[in-house]
Structures are given as structure tokens and as C-alpha cells.
């Protein structure tokens, strides 16, 4: 692999934002002027959080969800859910928040935003969206996208997504993101005008690179392996957890039958009657307590799911590195082969196969002028190639540096968030145990009075 | 209970024991030890039941001392000494020490029966014999034959049809032992049954089989006479109070059956929950192996779930071994009681038929013939015995179910307490900051 000449320090910049007219100049200036970016620890729990956006602190919330009907691209009627996004700016002086923007977005627009961010920030572990369809459900939950519980959990997930983006030191400054929050109409067109779809790497290309790359950075290889394993283990965990929830539901609900039979039995008893009857009531309480318990657990499952999807984002960054590395290797290889061709032409030895060489053999030797012309073309190509290789090398190194910085940030966030999730899970279990003790103690009290 | 007919009951309980010579008298009277296997010189009343046992009227106090009266505040302690009749106890029976016997033809289990008594009906103050299930079965049959007017306690089921149950597993044997112990204690508590000569032989005979072969030699008068009722008479209507008992028993058995099904279903669901839990915990371990800072917290969660799994297994085992069998016993009990009710109907029917026959004969005699009088006697005795037994049964049923259901609540509380402890202990581990390590 060719070594590039000494590095030029060049700041990695996102793809240039399309200039859009009057309000943006102000924003651009504001963004450029900003010296510091506040680093949030990451919301993780869907509550409002602050961040420095431009010069003001803002709060973002996805406060409502509404069912809508409309016409889709094929002019067919469809039903979808729209989500209300409210942005508030917080005045430093009195801490009051003022509603600055509110608009409605549907899930597909969130997807569009994310796809845009993926293309323009390939070195960033881009926060994931909540799942499109309900998966890992246990039997009670509906897998229907219109189910109110699902919609509610999705609302929280979308808010979480926006908060994650808003608190990311780099992503929060993105123009399109800002417009997503502030410009209801025409936003889709604006995004599409950036032409980001064209800049996207094809999946095929990425896969190809994965198999053929020779010298990827070992850290990325390890990271990719980790993200695969993480995805696998969290999927497994979510599946088992869903089955556990299902079984637990069964255990609790069957106890409800005691309520009825104790009541019936108490009717034929004299002294035992009261105790039985009241114990039966507690069995009913026990049986119905599982609904809230499992509802709470769903939030824990959602926290796990976020990191399941984050694993995919991690993998995307690794793949980008592989792609860039592969590109670099291909370019170097191409350059080397051209140089060799050039050398052979100059010295007259033929070691490599070339079409020209073939045709020369078939149709006769070329003239010295023809050969000179060819050498000249090659030399130009070699020059160009060397420039390209140099810049590719630089790009590659920049990418690795910046990506790794974000990956470190991500690791901190992940460890913090998952620990919090585990704690909240333990707290839920403790609460469930305490409730169980309470109910059975009450029942025992009733039995003792039989 | 001291010797002699219990107060207030005009029953013709067997007095014949005093007249009959002890079948084995003179041969081995100096030996206190019976049984066919290991001699047990130590005849101290062994604690044959653990602290999970049901309340038994004949509490495990040594012979001679009276059981203290209980107060309801002691109900938490499962070893409650409750003296139903308020009299000094003079008979204590315990079943323990199961042993496996392997013979050419068969393999079976025997249990040690230890008896301590100051009653005159017993030659010695203490006995220890070995009996197997079929001996208990024989005893029960004999009691039904000889005391048809009384409610005979149930035996645990002979066979366990459901599932593949190992007859020789520790759990099965222990469950059976408890039930057999309960069976004998119920008889011991009964003012009439406890004096039955078959019962006495069962407790004391060195060679029960020899005695069994002697056949029907010891039928009591009432037993004999009732046996001759062929059942050809049809009762017009049950008296109200017995009809009420019949209705009660019908509903009672129904409700118990439902509770049994619910309890079984709960255990089944809990076992399926356990299966999933056993897969759940290890996934956290697998995850832990991938991580750095999160490795310990995740491993901790895995261990926690493991503890909860173990606690759950203990709960399901307890419920299977201690709760279900007692329910089933009571269902058997009420079935056999219904049988006794029917027999009573028979006796009444015979009496009424004979009375009617006399009335139809239109004889001038004001005096009722002797055999009709005998019928009336029989009926009145039966009614009295049955009523008394029902009252007694109701009272101990109440005790038994109070204990049983409190026990069920207790087991669940213990399960949750174990889980709570596990989860609470892991919180500090989860909250630990990496720098602190």
C-alpha cells in the first residue's frame, strides 16, 4: 500500500449544507460563532433535557400522537399516526421556557431524517429509531401498529431519538435537523434536495468491501465483531424475557380463580366463611397486579431494544471504514499496476498483460510515437492517482480518528445507560416482590381468622 | 382420654377388648419392641414431622403430660398443641422412619409406628412396630366394618396415576408418611375409634399377618347387626339435618375439587415459568462475557435470576408435597362420609319399613315388637354417632384448612422474601462506580 506524503491537518467537515436563503445565514453565523458545545450525558429515559443549540438552550418533546387519514403517493387512502413535536427555548434569566415551535411529523419523516444523518455523518454512531413494528411481544401485547400502548411507547422512543440527536455534540448542529424541528412544510423536499440519496453507499458495495478488504484497522474489526455479538445476545434476551413475561402472567392470573371459589365455598361455611371470602379478595388483587408490573417491564425492554438497534449503527460505522479502506486499497493497487505498465513500456519489457500489448502482438508493433503518447497518458494518470491516493489516505485517517472519538463517547453512554437500565430492572423486581409479600401477608391474616 | 365410654355418647362402642385375650399375650409380652427389621431400643417419641407439618391434634409432647391449650395468636407456629376435648391425653401415636425392603417377590416400604399409652387396653406403656401401606389399608377396612356408624379418616391414595411418580422417591415416601401419620392421629383422637380392638392390634401386634388370617373373629355387635342390613329398603326422605349434611358434603367436595384443579394449574404454570427463568439468567452471563465495565453488573443480574429460580423450585416442590395431598385427602374423606350417610339412610329405611309393616298388620297390640324396637335403637344410635362425628369433623376441618391455607400463604411469602433479598443485595453492586474498584 502506498504511503501518502506527510499529513495535512484538515478538519473533517460534514458535507456542505445547501445555502437556503435568509434565516439560515443567521443560523450559520450562530453555529459558527459557538465556541463550546455542551456535552450532555445522554437522556436515556425520554424526559426533557437541555442542550445548547445555537446560542439558546432548547427543550424538545414529542408530546402527542394522533391518528390521521390521508392519501399516499399512489393516491390511496391510508391511516397513519402523526406525532407532535414541541420545541421550547429556555431563557437563561428566569428559567422559563417559551414554546418556539410545534409541528406534526410522522414516522416516515423521522426515518428520512435518520437516513440523511447516516449518509452525512458516517463516522458517527447515529442514534436509532424505535422499532417500526412491534417485535418481541408477549401474548398480551398487540403487534398492531395502531395499538394505543404501542403508539405510546413509540412516542416515547421518538422523543428519545430527538433528544439523543440534540445532545450529540456534532449532530445537534446539523441544519436539516434544525429544520426538522422548525419547518413543517417543505421539509421533505429540502432534505431530498441535498441529494443525500445519491451520496449513499450501496449495500452491495459495502458488502463487497467487507469481504475483500485486506488491512482494516483491527479495532474496527473487533468492534464489528462485538456489535454482532451484542445484537445476538440482546435479541436472545428480549425473546426470553417476552416468554418469561408470558408465563408470569399466567401464574398470576390463575390465582384469580381462587377468589371465585373461595367466595363460593364461604357460602356453605359458618365460622370459616368470612376469612375465606376476604382472602379471596386478596387473591383477586394479586391476579390483577401483574398488569402494571409487566407494563413497567416493557420500558426496560425498550431500553434494551434501543441498544439492540444501536448495535446496528455501530456496525454501520465499521462498514464505512471497511469501505474506505477497500477503496484505498483498490486505488493503491490500481496505481501500482499503472506504474508497472509505465515502466514496462519505457523499458520495453512486457511482464504484465495489457490489451494494447495483445493487439500489438496481433496487429503489429506500435510506433515509438504511439508508445510515447501512451506513456504520457499513463504518467498523467499516475499523477492523478497519486493525488487521489494521498487524499484518500488522509480521509481514511481522519475518518478513523473522528469515528473512534465518537465510539469512545458512545461506549461511555452505553455503559451508563445500561447500568441505569439494570438498576431500574432490579428496582422493578424488588417492587414486585414487596407487593407479593404484602398480598400474601394479607391473605394469611384472613386465613388465620378462619 | 381415659378408659371407659366417652361421655355423652350413647354409642355401643366396643368394650370387648377387655374380654378378649390379647392374641399375642404370653409370647412376647416382655419385649416392647415389635416389628420385623431393626430393633429400636430408643422409644422416645421421635419428632416424626418437620416444621412444615400440619397441625395435628395429638401434638408431639411426651407421654403423660397434657397439651397446653392454644391461643389463636400461636397459629403462626405450625406445631400447635390443641386438645380438642380438653382432657388429658393418654394415647400418642407417631409414624416415622420409612425403610425400603427388597424381597424376591416385591419391594416395599415399611414405617415405624410408635405408641405410648397409659390406657389399660395396652399391656405395655410403649410399643414400636413396623407396618406397610397394605396394613393401613387392612386397618381402615376393619374399622369401616366394625364401626359403620362412625366417620373413618381417609388413607392417602394407593396408587399415583398421574405422571411417572417414583414410589420410592424421598418426596413421595415423605408425603405418604405424613398422611399415614395424620390417619392414625385422627383415629387416636376419636373417643370411640381409638378403643377399637383392630386399632389396638395394629399398634401392638408383632406379627400382624397372623392376626389378619384369624378373620372376622372380632366383629362388634353393632358391626354385625348393621352388616345384615342388605340394603333392600328405600328411604322416603332424609331428615332435614342429615339432608343438610349431605348437601354440605356435596358442595364441599365440589369446591375442594375446584381448588385442587386451580392449585395444580398454578403449579404447572409456575413450572413453565421456571423453565423460562432457567434460560433467562444465563443469557445475562453470555452478555457479561462481551462487556468490560458492564461485566460484573450483568453477571450479578444473572446470579440473581438464578437465586429466584431456586426459590421458585422450592415453592413448587412444597406445594406439590404439602398442599395437594391434603386437599385430596379431604376429598376422599368427604366421599367416605357420604357413604356413611347412605348407610344411615339404610338403617332408617329398614326401621320405617318394619314399622309400617306392623301398622299395616292392624294388630291390637299397643306394644311394638322387639325387632322393630331394635331397629329404632340402631337408627338412633347411628344418628347420634354420626352427628357427634360430624361436629368433631367440622371442628378439625376448620383447623386443618386454616393451617393448610396459612401454610400456602407462608410458602409464597417465603418465596418472595428470598427473591427480594437477592435483588436488594445486587443494587449496591449495580450502583458501584468503576473508579471505586
TrEMBL record, chain A:
Start and end of every PX domain?
Answer: 61-187
Q: Establish whether keyword Lipid biosynthesis is in the entry.
A: no
Q: Which domain of life is it from?
A: Eukaryota
Q: Which membrane topology describes this protein?
A: Peripheral membrane protein
Q: Tell me any Pfam family this protein matches.
A: PX
Q: One GO MF term, please?
A: phosphatidylinositol-3-phosphate binding
Q: Which InterPro entries match?
A: AH/BAR_dom_sf (IPR027267), PX_dom (IPR001683), PX_dom_sf (IPR036871), PX_SNX4 (IPR034902), SNX4 (IPR034783), SNX4_BAR (IPR037430)
Instruction: Choose any GO biological process term that the UniProt entry carries and state it.
Output: positive regulation of autophagosome assembly
Asked whether the keyword Membrane is assigned, the reply is yes
Task: Kindly state which keywords UniProt assigns to this record, in alphabetical order.
Answer: Acetylation, Endosome, Lipid-binding, Membrane, Protein transport, Transport
Q: Where in the cell is it found?
A: Early endosome membrane
Region: Disordered, residue numbers: 1-53
Gene3D superfamilies, sorted: Arfaptin homology (AH) domain/BAR domain (1.20.1270.60), Phox-like domain (3.30.1520.10)
Query: Cross-referenced SUPFAM superfamilies, in alphabetical order?
Result: PX domain (SSF64268)
Instruction: Give me the Gene Ontology terms describing cellular component.
Output: early endosome membrane; plasma membrane; SNARE complex
Q: Which PANTHER family match?
A: SORTING NEXIN-4 (PTHR46596:SF1)
Q: How does it assemble?
A: Heterodimer; heterodimerizes with SNX7 or SNX30. Interacts with WWC1/KIBRA. Identified in a complex with WWC1/KIBRA and dynein components DYNLL1 and DYNC1I2. Interacts with BIN1.
Q: What does this protein do?
A: Involved in the regulation of endocytosis and in several stages of intracellular trafficking. Plays a role in recycling endocytosed transferrin receptor and prevent its degradation. Involved in autophagosome assembly by regulating trafficking and recycling of phospholipid scramblase ATG9A.
Regarding protein family, the annotation reads: Belongs to the sorting nexin family.
Task: Name the chain's protein.
Answer: Sorting nexin-4
Source species: Suricata suricatta (Meerkat)
Q: What is the lineage of its organism?
A: Eukaryota, Metazoa, Chordata, Craniata, Vertebrata
Q: Which gene encodes it?
A: SNX4
Automatic annotation (TrEMBL), chain B:
InterPro entries in UniProt: AH/BAR_dom_sf (IPR027267), PX_dom (IPR001683), PX_dom_sf (IPR036871), SNX30_BAR (IPR028649)
Q: List the GO terms this entry assigns under cellular component, sorted alphabetically.
A: early endosome membrane; phagophore assembly site
Q: How does it sit in the membrane?
A: Peripheral membrane protein
What top-level branch of life does the organism fall under?
Eukaryota
Report the subcellular localization.
Early endosome membrane
Q: Where is this region: Disordered?
A: 1-44, 54-73
Sorted keywords for this record are: Protein transport, Transport
A GO BP entry is: reticulophagy
Q: Name one GO molecular function term.
A: phosphatidylinositol binding
Q: Where is the PX domain?
A: 89-210
Where in the sequence does UniProt note compositional bias of the Low complexity kind? 63-73
List, alphabetically, the Pfam families matched: PX
SUPFAM superfamilies, A to Z: BAR/IMD domain-like (SSF103657), PX domain (SSF64268)
Assembly, per entry:
Heterodimer; heterodimerizes with SNX4.
**Similarity comment text for this entry:** Belongs to the sorting nexin family.
Name of the featured protein = Sorting nexin-30
From what organism does this protein derive? Suricata suricatta
Amino acid at each position: 500500500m502506498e504511503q501518502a506524503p506527510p499529513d495535512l491537518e484538515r478538519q473533517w467537515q460534514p458535507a456542505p449544507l445547501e445555502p437556503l436563503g435568509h434565516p439560515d445565514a443567521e443560523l450559520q453565523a450562530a453555529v459558527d460563532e459557538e465556541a463550546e458545545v455542551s456535552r450532555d450525558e445522554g437522556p436515556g429515559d425520554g424526559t426533557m433535557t437541555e442542550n445548547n443549540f445555537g446560542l439558546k438552550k432548547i427543550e424538545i418533546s414529542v408530546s402527542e400522537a394522533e391518528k390521521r387519514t390521508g392519501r399516499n403517493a399512489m393516491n390511496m387512502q391510508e391511516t397513519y399516526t402523526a406525532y407532535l413535536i414541541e420545541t421550547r427555548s429556555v431563557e437563561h434569566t428566569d428559567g422559563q421556557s417559551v414554546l418556539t415551535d410545534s409541528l406534526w411529523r410522522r414516522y416516515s419523516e423521522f426515518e428520512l431524517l435518520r437516513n440523511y444523518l447516516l449518509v452525512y455523518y458516517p463516522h458517527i454512531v447515529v442514534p436509532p429509531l424505535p422499532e417500526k413494528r412491534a417485535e418481541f411481544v408477549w401474548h398480551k401485547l398487540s403487534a398492531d401498529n395502531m395499538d394505543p400502548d404501542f403508539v405510546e411507547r413509540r412516542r416515547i422512543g421518538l422523543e428519545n431519538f430527538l433528544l439523543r440527536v440534540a445532545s450529540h455534540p456534532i449532530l445537534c448542529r446539523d441544519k436539516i435537523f434544525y429544520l426538522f424541528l422548525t419547518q413543517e412544510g417543505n421539509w421533505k423536499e429540502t432534505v431530498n434536495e441535498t441529494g443525500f440519496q445519491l451520496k449513499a453507499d450501496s449495500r452491495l458495495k459495502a458488502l463487497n468491501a467487507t469481504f475483500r478488504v485486506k488491512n482494516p484497522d483491527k479495532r474496527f474489526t473487533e468492534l464489528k465483531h462485538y456489535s454482532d455479538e451484542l445484537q445476538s445476545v440482546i435479541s436472545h434476551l428480549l425473546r426470553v424475557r417476552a416468554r418469561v413475561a408470558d408465563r408470569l402472567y399466567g401464574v398470576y392470573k390463575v390465582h384469580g380463580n381462587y377468589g371465585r371459589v373461595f367466595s363460593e365455598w364461604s357460602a356453605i361455611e359458618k365460622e370459616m366463611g368470612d376469612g375465606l371470602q376476604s382472602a379471596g379478595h386478596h387473591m383477586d388483587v394479586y391476579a390483577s397486579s401483574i398488569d402494571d408490573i409487566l407494563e413497567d417491564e416493557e420500558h426496560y425492554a425498550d431500553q434494551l431494544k434501543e441498544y439492540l438497534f444501536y448495535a446496528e449503527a455501530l456496525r454501520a460505522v465499521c462498514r464505512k471504514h471497511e469501505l474506505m479502506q477497500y477503496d484505498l486499497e483498490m486505488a493503491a493497487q490500481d496505481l501500482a499496476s499503472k506504474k508497472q505498465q509505465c515502466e514496462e513500456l519505457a523499458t520495453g519489457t512486457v511482464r504484465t498483460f495489457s490489451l494494447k500489448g495483445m493487439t500489438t502482438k496481433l496487429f503489429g508493433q506500435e510506433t515509438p510515437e504511439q508508445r510515447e503518447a501512451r506513456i504520457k497518458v499513463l504518467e498523467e494518470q499516475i499523477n492523478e492517482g497519486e493525488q487521489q491516493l494521498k487524499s484518500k489516505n488522509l480521509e481514511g485517517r481522519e475518518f478513523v480518528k473522528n469515528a473512534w472519538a465518537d465510539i469512545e463517547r458512545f461506549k461511555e453512554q452505553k455503559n451508563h445507560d445500561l447500568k441505569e437500565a439494570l438498576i431500574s430492572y432490579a428496582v422493578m423486581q424488588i417492587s414486585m416482590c414487596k407487593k407479593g409479600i404484602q398480598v400474601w401477608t394479607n391473605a394469611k391474616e384472613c386465613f388465620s381468622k378462619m | 382420654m381415659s378408659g371407659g365410654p366417652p361421655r355423652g355418647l350413647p354409642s355401643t362402642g366396643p368394650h370387648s377388648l377387655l374380654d378378649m385375650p390379647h392374641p399375642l399375650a404370653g409370647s412376647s409380652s416382655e419385649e416392647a419392641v415389635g416389628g420385623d427389621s431393626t430393633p429400636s431400643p430408643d422409644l422416645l417419641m421421635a419428632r416424626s414431622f418437620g416444621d412444615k407439618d400440619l397441625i395435628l391434634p395429638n401434638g408431639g409432647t411426651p407421654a403423660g403430660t397434657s397439651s397446653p391449650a392454644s391461643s389463636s395468636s400461636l397459629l403462626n407456629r405450625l406445631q400447635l398443641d390443641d386438645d380438642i376435648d380438653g382432657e388429658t391425653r393418654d394415647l400418642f401415636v407417631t409414624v416415622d422412619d420409612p425403610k425400603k425392603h427388597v424381597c424376591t417377590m416385591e419391594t416395599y416400604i415399611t414405617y415405624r409406628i410408635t405408641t405410648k399409652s397409659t390406657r389399660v387396653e395396652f399391656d405395655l406403656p410403649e410399643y414400636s412396630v413396623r407396618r406397610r401401606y397394605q396394613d393401613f389399608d387392612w386397618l381402615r377396612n376393619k374399622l369401616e366394618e366394625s364401626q359403620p356408624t362412625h366417620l373413618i379418616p381417609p388413607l392417602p391414595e394407593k396408587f399415583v396415576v398421574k405422571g411417572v411418580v417414583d414410589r420410592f422417591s424421598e418426596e413421595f415416601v415423605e408425603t405418604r408418611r405424613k398422611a399415614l401419620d395424620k390417619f392414625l392421629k385422627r383415629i387416636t383422637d376419636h373417643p370411640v375409634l381409638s378403643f377399637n380392638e383392630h386399632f389396638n392390634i395394629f399398634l401392638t401386634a408383632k406379627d400382624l399377618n397372623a392376626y389378619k388370617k384369624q378373620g372376622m373373629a372380632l366383629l362388634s355387635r353393632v358391626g354385625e347387626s348393621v352388616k345384615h342390613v342388605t340394603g333392600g329398603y328405600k328411604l322416603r326422605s332424609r331428615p332435614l339435618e342429615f339432608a343438610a349434611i349431605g348437601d354440605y358434603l356435596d358442595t364441599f367436595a365440589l369446591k375442594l375439587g375446584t381448588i385442587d384443579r386451580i392449585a395444580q394449574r398454578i403449579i404447572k404454570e409456575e413450572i413453565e415459568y421456571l423453565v423460562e427463568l432457567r434460560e433467562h439468567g444465563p443469557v445475562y452471563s453470555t452478555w457479561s462475557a462481551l462487556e468490560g465495565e458492564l461485566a460484573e453488573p450483568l453477571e450479578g443480574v444473572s446470579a440473581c435470576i438464578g437465586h429466584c429460580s431456586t426459590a421458585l423450585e422450592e415453592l413448587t416442590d412444597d406445594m406439590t408435597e404439602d398442599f395437594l395431598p391434603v386437599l385430596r385427602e379431604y376429598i376422599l374423606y368427604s366421599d367416605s362420609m357420604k357413604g356413611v350417610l347412605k348407610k344411615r339412610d339404610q338403617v332408617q329405611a329398614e326401621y320405617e319399613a318394619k314399622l309400617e309393616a306392623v301398622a299395616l298388620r292392624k294388630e291390637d297390640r299397643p306394644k311394638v315388637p322387639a325387632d322393630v324396637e331394635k331397629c329404632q335403637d340402631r337408627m338412633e344410635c347411628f344418628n347420634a354417632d354420626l352427628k357427634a362425628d360430624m361436629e368433631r369433623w367440622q371442628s378439625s376441618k376448620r383447623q386443618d384448612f386454616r393451617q393448610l391455607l396459612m401454610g400456602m400463604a407462608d410458602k409464597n411469602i417465603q418465596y418472595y422474601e428470598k427473591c427480594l433479598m437477592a435483588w436488594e443485595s445486587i443494587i449496591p453492586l449495580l450502583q458501584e462506580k468503576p473508579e471505586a474498584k
